[in-house]
Amino acid sequence: MSTNVYVAGVGSTKFGVLPGRNLQGLAAEAARAALVDSNIPSARIGCVFVGNFVGGIMTGQELLGPIVAADLGLSNVAAIKIEAACASSSAAARIGHDLIRAGAEDAVLVIGVERLTGAPRDALTSAMTAAIDQGTEGVAGLTFPGFWGMVMARHMHLYGTTREQVAAVTVKNRKFGVGNPLAQFQKLVTPDEVLASPPISDPIRRYDCCPATDGAAALVLTNETLAKQYGSPAVRIAASVLINGPARITDYDEITTHDGTVRAAIRAYEIAGVGPEDIDVAELHDCFSVAEIVDSEDLGFFAKGEGGPAVAGAPSARNSKVVINPSGGLLSKGHPTGATGCGQIYEVVMQLRGRHPNQVPNARFGLTHNGGGTAAAVTVHILETSR
Amino acid sequence: MTVMQGTVQSHTVIRVPDKAHAAMAPFVLLLVELANGKRVLGHFHGASPPAIGSRVTADASEQATPVFREETQ
Questions:
Q1: Which of A87, A158, A180, A198 shows the smallest number of beta carbons within 10 Å?
Q2: Mean pLDDT (chain A, rounded)
Q3: Fold of B2-70
Q4: Assessment of whether the complete model's pTM goes beyond 0.95
Q5: What string of DSSP letters covers A63-121?
Q6: Are the beta carbons of A304 and A258 closer than 8 angstroms?
Q7: Residues of chain A with pLDDT > 90: what percent?
């Protein structure tokens, strides 16, 4: 018999440029905050999963699982790093979720952590392209702004999405970032500033791109028994899905529809017994401004091609209430790649507790969507309030 | 000898490359659907990409990445 799984506690560092901090220290800070928040004694933790993408490349540090566990004083746990590019820590959450659901563990600590700032831009670009198949597409010079530039050019061609609609994503998420103390960017931008920013990979410009970010976020996952025993401020995980999508741009039938996201969402809605129309708040993977438009369509909030008009204010027949990326999203809160998945769940848990700085009124169901590579490793989590 | 013929599915101009392609940038990258339905990434003879839907061809080459040009009528 399977049990319900809860997020018992959450913790996060500030997301931003954090010079002088190392991966271990950031991870431990977020983890301690999550443990305190959960009210569950650390001795009850059976596993520590650390989601991290490029710690080895950027900092030379590996084996984060045992090192972080030791720093937390945990000496009798299964502790490993889990890598799924930019979806590393939400993938780790899925594995923790499954262990608790199966009854194999009572409490799991999931941490996401990354350090990306301070490196030369070409070194950062090269590190990120580690998630592109080097045998086929890395040799051609494809980058992630390149992938999303191609997606954006074709979305505009097929659906008439305008440059201004795509810029509206950045403008909206910068506005949310100003309200979120954890966010890297605390400054508004205008549509004109987006359109005048330097080109990166046509038609993508600098303000269409998420920043390089340092940070960590952590979750304590547990079952109903422990959550009740320790009085945790628990939020139920109604669905936790990890699924693969096309791992190369050339494997896509149509690059403006991300099959991994579509299939992860369909499965998550089935498991949770809800539909896209029931979601009040969503934190989705806006690594580039156009990605929010594509993702919001593939998650079922809007019909294909209606994501651009929707962000610019057009009413949607499918879901007229969902608030997207009130944290500021990857575009403004920042994208510490390995930490982003846990950071999104942190944000939605705060929404469902009614304690978010950009609170969505009466939020009952929240969704997170996190993608690694060319939407090649995709997670969707649906969480339900206990209020 | 022409070895590849196809239609442009999408394009970009890479202006911030990774380290391995620093000397090439900026450069056009094309996603091309070949006649057999297979998709390939290619470079392009030219500084501005051809429109989506354009017909392009690439010649035989030792290079890993094909280099396309716009098909002449």
A1: A198
A2: 97
A3: OB fold (Dihydrolipoamide Acetyltransferase, E2P) (2.40.50)
A4: yes
A5: -HHHHHHHHTT--SSEEEEE-BTBTHHHHHHHHHHHHHHTTS-SEEEEEEEE--TTS-H
A6: no
A7: 95
Active-site option among A86, A209, A210, A342: A86
> How far off is chain B from A54, nearest CA to CA, in Å?
15
Where residue A1 falls among pLDDT bands split at 50, 70, 90?
A: low
Q: Which of A177-181, A237-241, B1-5, B23-27 has the lowest mean pLDDT?
A: B1-5
The string of pLDDT tens digits covering residues A321-346 is 999 999 999 999 999 999 999 999 99
Collapsed DSSP state (helix, strand, coil) of residue A249: helix
pLDDT tens digits, residue range A54-95? 999 999 999 999 999 999 999 999 999 999 999 999 999 999
Indicate which residue of A155, A258, A335, A356 is catalytic: A335
Instruction: Tell me whether residue A209 is one of the annotated catalytic residues.
Output: no
pLDDT band at B1 (very low <50, low <70, confident <90, very high): low
Q: Is the peptide bond before B26 cis (omega within 30 degrees of 0)?
A: yes
Q: Which residues contact A55 (CB under 8 A, 6 or more apart)?
A: A23, A61, A62, A64, A81, A113, A114, A115, A338
> What is residue A224's predicted lDDT score, i.e. its pLDDT?
97
Residues from chain A contacting residue B11 (CB–CB below 8 Å): 150, 153, 202
Of A145, A199, A250, the CB nearest to B39: A250
* pLDDT value, residue A319: 78
Chain B residues with CB under 8 Å of A202 CB are: 11-13, 15, 49
Token pair 């605390």 is at which residue? A186
With cut-offs at 50, 70 and 90, classify the pLDDT of residue A375: very high
Residue with token string 């029931």: A278
ipTM of the complex: 0.97
User: Do residues A244 and A32 make contact, with C-beta atoms less than 8 angstroms apart?
Assistant: no
Q: Which of A109, A110, A118 is nearest to A22 (CA)?
A: A118
Where are chain B's structural domains?
Answer: 2-70
Integer angstrom CA distances of residue A38 from A98, A114, A119, A220: 19, 23, 35, 7
Mark yes or no for CB contact A249/B29 under 8 Å. Answer: no
**Residue (of A209, A234, A364) closest to A287 by Cα position:** A209
- Closest-CA residue in chain A for B66? A140
Cα end-to-end distance, chain B, whole Å: 17
Which pLDDT score, from 0 to 100, does residue A317 have?
77
Which of the residues B4, B11, B28, B29 would you substitute to probe the A interface, choosing the one with the greatest number of A C-beta atoms within 10 Å?
B29
Residue to test with chain B: of A125, A136, A144, A148, most B Cβ within 10 A:
A125
Subunit contact A136:B41, Cβ cutoff 8 A? yes
State yes or no: is A335 an active-site residue.
yes
